Amino acid sequence: MKTKNVMIVGVGGQGSLLASKLLGYLLLSQGYDVKVSEVHGMSQRGGSVVTYVRYGEQVFSPVIDRGEADFIVSFEVLEAARWMPYLKEGGVIVTNTQQIDPMPVITGAATYPADLVKKMKDLGVKVDALDCLKLAEEAGSSKAVNIVLLGRLSHYFDIPEEAWDEALAAVVPARFLEMNRKAFTLGKNYRED
Predict the structure, then answer these.
(1) How far apart are alpha carbons 176 and 35 in whole angstroms?
(2) Mean pLDDT value of segment 90-114
(3) CB atoms within 10 A of CB 38
(4) Could you give the CA distance from residue 94 to residue 98 in angstroms, rounded to a whole number?
(5) Domains of the chain
(6) 20 with 26: CB under 8 angstroms?
(7) Which end of the chain is more exposed for a tag (fewer CB within 10 A), N or C?
(8) From CA 179, how far away is CA 101, in angstroms rounded?
(9) What is the pLDDT of residues 158-178, one digit of tens each?
(10) Residue 21 in 3-state DSSP?
């Protein structure tokens, strides 16, 4: 099997570490060789962060280069656009539509770009965009955006739902498990209006 590459991108404090840990656990449970990078970037709340998850028959490095990502899972729409050059042709961006203003926007030195999802789609990129924050809050916590995103990502994997559930149970603290299961299901079953 050819190695597949998933980039998880976002802003510090959004739960990208848990998302990459869960995805890594899931893929290992399915018999793949898996390499997960450390979180790179300003992982303090507000800074741009990226984690790489690579899986296949034999994986030698956790690093993903430009044009190699099969999937970019993005916690924030500007981060999806920022990392888009890493997406391979035919790859998919699964993104939260939430906008988190970076420091230049906060200070007034720049403005947040408008219509980023439309702009990416206009470039021919397959973008699966949903309001993960709204769905996470519906599940019971704004902190479940990461699990909503993974629920959405599960559409693109030929892995049984039970395996995703087992990975959730193994990685998420027991007291948050039911809420995270609900968040996963809301992301998985999301339909555009």
Answers:
(1) 26
(2) 90
(3) 10
(4) 12
(5) 4-188 (3.40.920.10)
(6) no
(7) C
(8) 28
(9) 999 999 999 999 999 999 999
(10) helix
Q: What is the DSSP string of 146-188?
A: HHHHHHHHGGGS---HHHHHHHHHHHS-GGGHHHHHHHHHHHH
DSSP conformation letters of 76-116: SHHHHHHHGGGEEEEEEEEEE------HHHHTTSS-PPS-H
Q: Return d(Cα 143, Cα 123) in angstroms, integer.
A: 31
Q: What is the pTM of this model?
A: 0.93
Q: Is the dihedral of CA 153, 32, 182, 81 positive or negative?
A: negative
**Residue 85 confidence (pLDDT):** 97
Angle, alpha carbons 11-177-132 (nearest 5°): 40
Return the amino acid letter for 45.
R
**DSSP for residue 43:** -
Q: What spatial distance separates the first Cα and last Cα of the chain, rounded to whole Å?
A: 36
What does the block give as tokens for 75? 């916690």
Amino acid sitting at position 9: V
Is there a contact between 91 and 74 (Cβ–Cβ < 8 Å)?
Answer: no
CA distance 40 to 1: 27
Per-residue buried b or exposed e for 116-149, using 16+ beta carbons within 10 Å of the residue's own CB? bbeebeeeebebbbbebbbbbbebeeebbbbbbb
